[in-house]
Amino acid sequence: YPPGPPQLPVIGNLFDLPTETPWIKYTEWAQQYGDIVSLNVGGTVIVVVNSVQAADDLLDKRGAKYIDRPPVPFFLVGEVHSSILMNWSFFVLIAPYTDGWRARRKHCVRGLRPRAVQQYQGTLTDKVRHFLKDVRAQPDAQAFRTHVEELQGAIIMSIVYGYDVSGPEDTYLTVARDANAIGQRHFSPGDTLVNALPFLAQLPEWLPGMGFHAVARIGARLGAKMVKDPYLLVKSRMEQGFARPSLTRDCLEELEQSGLAGDEEAETAIMESSGSLYLAGADTTLSTLTTMFAVLALHPGVQEKAQAELDAVVGRSRLPDFGDRPRLPYINAMCRELVRWRPVAPMSVPHAPLEDDVYNGYLIPKGAVVLTNIWAMMHDPAVYPDPDAYRPERFLFTDGKFKDDPRLAFAFGFGRRSCPANHLVDATLFIFVASLLSAFSVRKAKDAQGREIPVDGTHGGRVLSHPKDFKCLIVPRDADAEKLLKDIPDRS
Ligand code: HEM
Fold first, then answer.
1. What do you get for the CA distance between the two ends of the chain, in Å?
2. Ligand 1: which residues within 6 Å by Cβ?
3. What ligand 1 atom has the least distance to the C-alpha of 273?
4. By the 8 A CB rule, do 443 and 1 touch?
5. Among 151, 276, 284, which residue has the most ligand 1 atoms within 8 Å of its CB, making it the best to mutate?
6. Which residues lie across from 38 on neighbouring strands?
7. What is the pLDDT of residues 267-318, one digit of tens each?
8. Residues with Cβ within 8 Å of residue 160, at least 6 apart in sequence
9. pLDDT of residue 81
10. CB within 8 Å of 159: residues ≥ 6 apart
11. I need a labelling partner for 357 at 20 to 30 A (CA). Which of 29, 134, 429, 439 fits?
12. Do the beta carbons of residue 37 and residue 26 sit within 8 Å?
């Protein structure tokens, strides 16, 4: 196996396994042991891939081998374990490599490809403008997080189902949010014991510590509802002839054109791939967008440069749109630097090899848990000097033109399980940052004595990274900005 920290008999590295911000410890091990590090936890081999070269060699070039996911017992069903917990086999992100996963992934990729995302630019712009209006109405120092949460929910429901959520208590949104909360709390082995020791699922429920069964039942019910209800809404709207364009509608129309309308298996694949997207996209988007507020509060100079660019290109009499994008290199560079600075999935999502593999003389056994250390790749000082500094200039040429960096695609993973939503995230980030800074300035909040409250730019988390709680002030830039905000039409 690849080198790694020393192991104890039987339990191996059980007590070495980092739980909070594991990417920091994994990066330290990478410095000590090299590009590929291995651990052993009670017989399961964990392989951490720390460099772009090794990740590319293994997960991309040998992608067919690394296409599987290790099981997440709390989420899965009888084929893998003899007991049934949440039964979220619909969830593309965690699904094992099967024909069912392939069909579901195909819809996600198709529905989120660049041409499809272009079709959603109007929706993204509208939703972000409503968000600006919400912030103006309730500029409280911590409420921005709630507004961002509502924004990401509104974007996903609109793109996936052509459905406008009615507000934070919207029925469809509430079900998705509650299901997601259970999913996020039970994903990693450190979150739920049954993930580390799957045999526990077979013990009687009345035993102490078996409370996870009851939670799994709630998760199962919510998951089924989240997948089915909005899908049936789209179907009924299509029958009545007024379904708005959406990922689900497009997939169903394509099915019809290929003569497969009514095919239960094909329709289920569409329903389940759509139902996966809130789970995969909600917290990732939330973390990324809220981090931008920390960046702005911490870097007033960056904010000023961005606003100067917006004023020169867009002016003060309208809000920006996607047509402005090619002339806003600094805003584009800010978005790229955000993805690099605080990668939201720092250890990606584990892959699992379908068969034994050998790399540089080391064995990576079938069924190992293969983690990709995206954090180390995005913070490699040889590529990004002073990596913990937020510096958009990394992505600009000396003449100020935008300098793209293909390495940033790796923030969305590698190989055949890579994130299908990278174009959507890119578009969302751009319109979000450009619109926000046209209307508002973000500053550190002040305490009762008028002293600035420090903003902690570091992140916490286990699987996803998220900014630690912080406060900030979001104030309209001036009278022009107030007018722009007032002119945003109310939600229809
Ligand atoms: C900043 C935002 C996001 C980041 C950084 C991100 C990153 C990732 C990463 C690292 C993976 C695992 C890749 C791998 O296994 O190699 C992934 C998978 C996935 N992401 Fe994202 N993601 C983001 C937002 C979204 C959004 C908004 C959606 C949906 C609308 C989404 C849908 C998915 C899906 C469906 C998968 C599973 C793919 C599969 O297993 O075949 N992601 N994402």
1. 59
2. 92-93, 105, 108, 156, 276-277, 280-281, 284-285, 288, 344-345, 348-349, 351, 411-415, 417-421, 424-425
3. 35
4. no
5. 284
6. 47
7. 999 999 999 999 999 999 999 999 999 999 999 999 999 999 999 999 999 9
8. 111, 230, 246, 247, 248, 274, 277, 278
9. 46
10. 120, 123, 246, 247, 424
11. 29
12. yes
Q: Which atom of ligand 1 is nearest to the CA of 414?
A: 16
* pTM (predicted TM-score): 0.95
Residue nearest to atom 16 of ligand 1 (CA): 413
Position 59, amino acid: L
Please identify which residue in the block is written with the tokens 């329709």: 267
**206-262, pLDDT tens digit by residue?**
998 888 888 998 999 999 999 999 999 999 999 999 999 999 999 999 999 999 888
- Hey, what amino acid is at 223? G
Measured by CA distance, the residue closest to atom 19 of ligand 1 is 419
Question: CA-CA distance, 209 to 197, in Å (whole number)?
Answer: 13
Rounded distance, CA 129 to CA 476, Å?
A: 14
Please name the residue that has the structure tokens 């507000």: 167
For ligand 1, what atom is nearest to the CA of residue 344? 5
pLDDT score at 192 = 82
Q: What residue's CA is closest to ligand 1, atom 43? A: 419
Record the tokens describing residue 232, joined without a space: 């049936």
Cα of 93 from ligand 1 centre, angstroms:
7
- 483 alpha carbon to ligand 1 midpoint, in Å? 37
Which residue matches tokens 């990729």?
109
